[in-house]
Specification:
Elements: H1 4-15, H2 21-28, H3 32-44, E1 48-54, E2 64-73, H4 78-87, E3 91-97, E4 102-110, H5 115-120, E5 129-140, H6 158-165, H7 183-191, H8 197-204, H9 208-220, E6 224-230, E7 239-246, H10 252-260, E8 265-271, E9 277-283, H11 286-296, E10 305-316, E11 321-323, E12 326-328
GO molecular function, one term: sequence-specific DNA binding
Pfam families: AsnC_trans_reg (PF01037), HTH_AsnC-type (PF13404)
Protein name: AsnC family transcriptional regulator
Length: about 350
């Protein structure tokens, strides 16, 4: 179970992934050494990873989209399919659903690709796939997909959050692709988004001042983004589910924003397909999930139908894979092998 200080540290990182430990300490009323020690323990034990990610949308390319793919397959082939999805850089999230015959993943692929091309280019050739549903993500509600999930409580107040941000809200610059000379720095940030400037200088052979300038330029142009991956299971939240909802089109945006604001909800989006809204909820247990469905979701009269898919095993988050109960670097970690024992 997470305590108040760890929760506030995680929230601070989700607001500003590279915020100095000194500033967090000033805001939460702890020493800088305590904050640093707590963070390194959380990272070392695989509870949290701050990762730097190259932004594939930096040029405003409208010819690409995110697709939510539900794959129904033979149970004995789930492991092979999961390995292929986890290893593919176009796949940002992957999960096994209850029943051990279904995988759900998010894939970035061109709009021009056919339904089959979206997956067949990214999966081994196999006859084990029984059926595939592919829906486009039309709109993300609330904050961006990498926004924090703080349903575990211990949030910072609005005033504290503003102090964490400080003057770091740099205006967006002109779109810019990273250069080849940036690769050592980007690789280091992909492993640890909080890599100190001094270590980035060692990796690149640049001065610390040059590293600061280049990093600021990439961040300002949004060519470099940060994601904070958190493993809820290690914080006492052992149940995760995906909701597939039907809402009248005229109410889609308002209901989507309402759902995105719920503490239990980590992600909410409008999608194509038979259901026009989807959401990911994170709960302590089945009682917590039932309470959310009956009370908060049940209060939204515009929801016509809903389906619940329990996630049996989380395989990949945006910047991390989940292996041996830890968040790990996808490059260095072995792909997780699903099993009904979790």
């Amino acid at each position: 179970m997470i305590d108040a200080l760890d929760g506030q540290i995680l929230h601070a990182l989700q607001i500003s992934p590279r915020v100095p430990f000194r500033r967090i300490a000033e805001v939460v009323g702890a020493t800088e050494q305590t904050v640093a020690r707590r963070y390194h323990r959380l990272r070392r034990t695989g509870v949290v990873r701050v990762v730097g990610l190259e932004n594939p949308w930096v040029d405003g390319d409208a010819d690409w989209a995110h697709w939510v793919c539900r794959i129904h397959a033979k149970p004995e082939r789930i492991t092979q399919l999961a390995d292929a999805l986890v290893r593919n850089p176009d796949v940002s999230h992957a999960n096994v659903l209850s029943g051990w015959t279904d995988l759900v993943c998010t894939i970035r692929a061109p709009l021009g690709d056919s339904r089959d091309d979206v997956l067949l280019k990214r999966l081994p050739r196999t006859s084990s796939v029984i059926d595939i549903d592919i829906d486009a993500v039309l709109h993300t509600f609330g904050r961006p997909p990498s926004a924090p999930w703080t349903g575990y409580g211990h949030k910072l107040s609005g005033a504290q959050a503003a102090r964490i941000l400080g003057d770091d809200r740099t205006p967006a610059g002109q779109p810019s692709r990273p250069a080849n000379e940036d690769r050592p720095m980007l690789d280091a940030l992909a492993d640890d988004g909080r890599t100190p400037y001094s270590r980035l200088a060692e990796r690149t052979g640049w001065s610390v001042a040059r590293v600061r300038r280049r990093l600021a330029a990439l961040e300002a142009s949004r060519a470099l983004l940060y994601d904070v991956d958190v493993l809820p299971e290690r914080l006492g939240y052992h149940l995760s589910a995906m909701l597939w909802l039907t809402v009248p089109p005229r109410h889609t945006h308002r209901v989507g924003e309402q759902i995105a604001a719920h503490d239990h909800v980590a992600f909410a989006a409008a999608v194509s397909g038979r259901k026009n809204l989807m959401a990911v909820v994170i709960c302590r247990d089945f009682r917590d999930l039932y309470g959310y469905l009956a009370d908060q979701l049940g209060d939204i009269e515009e929801i016509l139908t809903y389906e619940v898919s329990i996630r049996s095993q989380r395989l990949k988050q945006h910047g991390s894979v989940i292996a041996h109960g830890r968040l790990m670097n996808p490059i260095t970690a072995r792909a997780p092998r699903p099993s009904p024992t979790g």
